[in-house]
Amino acid sequence: MKGAECGAGVRERNLSCVAHWGVSAEHAAAGTVGDEYCEERLRRAVRQELQQPCSVPCPGDCHLTEWSSWSSCQLTCLDGRSFESSGRRSRSRAVIVQVIENQDNCPEQVFETQPCKEGKCHSYEWRTSGWKDNERLVWCQRSDGVNVT
Fold first, then answer.
1. Which of 7, 18, 137, 146 could be stapled to 129 by a disulfide with Cβ–Cβ 3.0 to 4.6 Å?
2. Tally of CB atoms within 10 A around 48
């Protein structure tokens, strides 16, 4: 990032045109040539790729991650039977707190839901790892193999 340690900025890359001389790879020599020898349409095509907006969180700032993928369509179920004809799917954005003392000023994790069709009933089961040093992991796993919280 150019010109700043944190916050909004522009990420830049350089483009150079190079000419290769030589017959084989071991005898090849390369040298940078002037811009007048570069194809103008190539430079125009990659210009957008050379400068891209970016953001680096500043100390004390909160940062929202990109949206997760949409979950599968889920129905409200009891004993494997649904009580509704349409389901809901969801996605979320997590909050990254740069300095723990500032977490009260940060937003909560963001969730979105939307209606969907062709939902499935899932069952849930607590899973555990083996014991190691008097500790083991415990997690909830959905019947399709996805670990959920």
1. 137
2. 8
Q: Report the percent of the chain where pLDDT is more than 90.
A: 18
Torsion of CA 55, 59, 60, 64, to 10 degrees: 30
Range 93-110 average pLDDT: 80
Tokens describing residue 86:
């349409």
62 - beta bridge partners? 97
- pLDDT (average), residues 11-16: 74
Angle value at C-alpha 36, between 51 and 25, nearest 5 degrees? 85
CB-CB contact of 29 with 38 (8 Å) = no
Task: Give residue-wise pLDDT tens across range 37-64.
Answer: 666 656 665 665 677 777 776 766 777 8
